[in-house]
Design a protein that fits this description.
The complex is a heterodimer. By secondary structure, chain A is an all-alpha fold. By secondary structure, chain B is mostly helical. Classes of the chains: A mainly alpha, B mainly alpha. The interface between A and B is medium-sized, with 15 and 18 residues.
Chain lengths: 324, 50
Amino acid sequence: MAMATAHPETRAAARWQDYFQLLKPRVMSLVVFTALTGLVCANQPINPILAGVAILCIAVGAGASGALNMWYDADIDAKMRRTRGRPVPSGKVQGADALALGVVLSLFSVMLMGMALNWLAAGLLAFTIAFYALVYTVWLKRSTAQNIVIGGLAGALPPVIGWAAASGSTPLNAWLLCAIIFFWTPPHFWALSLYTSEDYAKAGVPMMPVVAGAASTRRQILIYSLLVVPLCLAPAFTGLGGAAYLGVAAAGGLVFLLLAWRLFRSRAGERTGERNTDGLYDVRAGAKDARNLFAFSILYLALIFATLLAEHLMGAQPLEVLAR
Amino acid sequence: MSDPRNESKADFKARRGRNIALALGLVLFVILVFVVTIVRLGSNVANHSF
């Protein structure tokens, strides 16, 4: 449960920037980008002001779920190097304040989405916030190694919300964008956890490398990579992506698979070599493979969504139409 | 929460910053609701068959 680690009498007063950090602005920017892609790909006429409001609601909703996550996870955040500087564990913001901010922003974003756009989009936004805050944060994160696999649904839904906001419906192509992010999440996060697994173990979070070991994690990363790359090609054949999309998805997919294969063959996440110089070098080399896949996975997702966005904004013909 | 009567300069500055951010957020929300109402009202009036 949430608790501040600093004593109240020594705590500096919270600045507005500390509250802003509760909204996880970097995660928010990725959510905005994928939601905007879904909204534009819907190809429906929408008032630009309402489109802006829809994106704002999704961004604020994502931020709200981030604040709820930081409130609940303050105890484990305090134990991990990567997260101990966050506003609640560092004592800059009280846990109760983070909870209040999360609840208020959730209500505001869902209600405004419902009133300004439609209640399908608002319902999906409410479901996403609840899924991330309750199902992932409260339940899955501390109880199963499949936490980020199932919890990844929350991060995968924004393009569907954007699509629903623009069109009032969620066709298969919207769910295809969701599936791409859903299957992209495990290789992305497990690559990160391979070189931060000690932190997770210290905090008692059952991430895959901690529970199943590094070798099993690397194998599962390869399996998910083999699933996600064909999925990323699929929009080119469902009337969503054009020739440029197919080129970017295929070329990037090859690099993705190559990096996943290199990681599979590496010793990333293993501690066996820490006692001698050669072993230490092996550990570093393995960590490099994990870092490479982690970094490229972000670039790959950004590239394919940016290409889809550009094609739809420029009115490029989908490949399906060109083939007729 | 610090006592406004004997807070330090840094605490005062932080509190003022928080208050300004909250005020701006609320004003922005009011403007947003107003604009959304006008936009939705406008499109509904335009689509209405008299």
